[in-house]
Design brief:
With 254 residues, the protein is mainly alpha-helical. The protein has 9 helices and 5 strands.
């Protein structure tokens, strides 16, 4: 490659990388419900639309909805109790709560905009207060706009990686690796923020927040002795989450 062309590639690559991070800074806003500064590139209406469009496919991946209307109604009742007694009711999101048929995978998750799910495998091990803890945690993900933040971060790293690839060949893969590690770290923080919000929602709705600790113990037992180390996981270790939950209980309990 001619030296002049090499310089041009470096310049273009650096310009693309700079553009990615300037754009990120310009799209930073304060979350009105958590007070945290976030990089967001979509509106709440777009989050709701993404969640509604994705919900059927996500349910299908877990065997569809659990075929018991009484249990579905129970899950919705607990979820709505949390929403109606917390700041969630003041948000623009459309909350709905679903019990999935999957009886093998212990899991719960939320889509952007308010669609919350729990598998029967996890649900079957919980009492009502523990279910409230899980659903409160998922509502926390929605209010925290964690999916929207991850999407925006992913877009930034895609642009930066493209710039690094143009400017320095193999540096693109390095930038991609840095981006993945950053998203991984933020994902853990999302979980901890949602745990704290879940504790707050439980207290506001009249549930015993210490039941959230028992949920962590259930998750820890489900992980077994071969659990992936925390630094390799998108979720903090349950033992570390318990300490944070205890601190949140002391913070919010009157």
């Amino acid at each position: 490659m001619k030296r002049g062309n090499w310089k041009i590639r470096i310049f273009i690559g650096l310009a693309i990388v700079a553009f990615a991070f300037i754009k990120k800074c310009s799209n930073t806003e304060e979350n009105p419900y958590t007070g945290r500064e976030q990089h967001i590139t979509m509106t709440s209406d777009q989050e709701i639309a993404i969640g509604l469009q994705s919900a059927p496919g996500m349910a299908q991946q877990h065997g569809g909805l659990y075929p018991d209307e009484k249990l579905q109604t129970f899950v919705k009742k607990v979820g709505n109790r949390l929403v109606n007694n917390s700041i969630a009711k003041d948000t623009p999101y459309h909350y709905d709560f679903h019990l999935l048929a999957d009886d093998q995978t212990i899991n719960a998750f939320a889509l952007p905009g308010g669609q919350c799910f729990i598998t029967y495998a996890l649900f079957s091990q919980l009492n009502e207060a523990q279910l409230a803890g899980v659903m409160g945690h998922e509502i926390g993900h929605v209010i925290g706009r964690h999916s929207a933040e991850r999407i925006a971060d992913s877009q930034t790293w895609q642009t930066a990686t493209m710039g690094a690839t143009v400017g320095a060949g193999d540096m693109g893969s390095i930038m991609g690796s840095i981006g993945q590690n950053t998203l991984l770290k933020n994902g853990r923080n999302d979980e901890l923020e949602s745990d704290e919000l879940g504790v707050l929602f439980m207290i506001k709705a009249g549930y015993d927040p210490y039941e959230m600790i028992k949920v962590m113990e259930i998750l820890k037992a489900a992980g077994g002795p071969n659990r992936v180390p925390e630094f390799q996981s998108t979720h903090p270790d349950p033992a570390n989450r318990i300490e944070k939950i205890k601190a949140a209980i002391e913070k919010y309990q009157e």
